[in-house]
Specification:
With about 250 residues, this protein is of the alpha+beta class. The protein contains 4 helices and 13 strands. The protein folds into 2 domains: about 180 residues, Sandwich (Immunoglobulin-like); about 60 residues, no CATH class. The strands form 3 sheets. It has a 5-stranded antiparallel beta sheet, with no helix packed on it. A 5-stranded mixed beta sheet has the order 3-13-12-5-8, with no helix packed on it.
Length: about 250
């Protein structure tokens, strides 16, 4: 629990402690996103916090999610700080929408600093409300389901944080990268990309061996032939070239 004045008897000292954090604002979002590599049907979470210092008299956050990523008949859920009660408890609000874009006006409490009433005065460091977790919940979060038919490829979720102090506007633009796996990249397919390369190499080896053996009327004599070493060297050379090509492509 947070309180604005943990020690009312020394309110002037509290003001002195908070004074260095006032003035021209400089804020940024700290973003903690889920794994950027996803499959269709996965849940995707973005947690973020406001970090910085300075005075703010207006603030909004604008979120744009590529519509191809959103599953039909599901909503995007936003959780964010709504208010702080007189006794220091933080209240969070939830907004759900099926739209790919949303603008949220932030409570200016997010930019205020508070003192804790469970530690001594000597240990006090003013806490920015928008920068910490509350009851294991982040200050802000976004949750949605990746569409089952989302086209494979790379996407960017844009989170713009803009705020105002006096007559000047400030913008903090952020992008969360998302990669939707192709069918052969999915974990449940059973093979990684490197495994596909190995499989292609071994199939090539088998094909070359079968071809060379078939070219000989007598497989036993072919194996015992003096040209075996040259054929092995040629085979290894072909495999190295093939492996290099596969590594370059993938």
């Amino acid at each position: 629990m947070l309180v604005a004045l943990a020690f009312p008897a020394i309110a002037e000292d509290v003001d002195d402690l908070l004074a260095p954090y006032k003035g021209i604002p400089a804020y940024c979002l700290i973003i903690d996103a889920a794994s950027p590599v996803v499959d269709g049907g996965d849940e995707f979470d973005i947690k973020f916090y406001i970090s910085g210092a300075g005075d703010v008299n207006f603030s909004e956050i604008s979120v744009t999610i590529p519509p191809e990523l959103l599953a039909k008949d599901t909503n995007v859920t936003y959780n964010y700080i709504y208010d702080v009660t007189d006794d220091g408890h933080v209240k969070q609000n939830t907004t759900e929408t099926n739209k790919s874009r949303l603008r949220l006006r932030l409570n200016l409490e997010c930019y205020k600093r508070y003192l804790r009433n469970d530690i001594s005065w000597e240990e006090q460091i003013p806490i920015l409300l928008g920068e910490v977790n509350y009851e294991k919940r982040p200050a802000f979060s976004i949750n949605f389901t990746i569409a089952d038919n989302a086209p494979a490829g790379n996407y960017a979720i844009t989170i713009n944080h803009y705020y105002k102090y006096l007559d000047k506007w400030y913008l903090d633009k952020n992008e969360v990268k998302v990669h939707v796996n192709t069918w052969y990249e999915k974990d449940n397919f059973g093979y990684s990309l490197l495994s596909w390369q190995s499989l292609a190499i071994w199939l090539t080896v088998l094909t070359i061996l079968i071809t060379l053996i078939n070219q000989s009327k007598d497989p036993v004599r072919w194996i015992q032939a003096d040209r075996l070493r040259r054929r092995i060297v040629l085979l290894i050379f072909i495999l190295l070239i093939l492996y290099g090509i596969l590594r370059y492509i993938f």
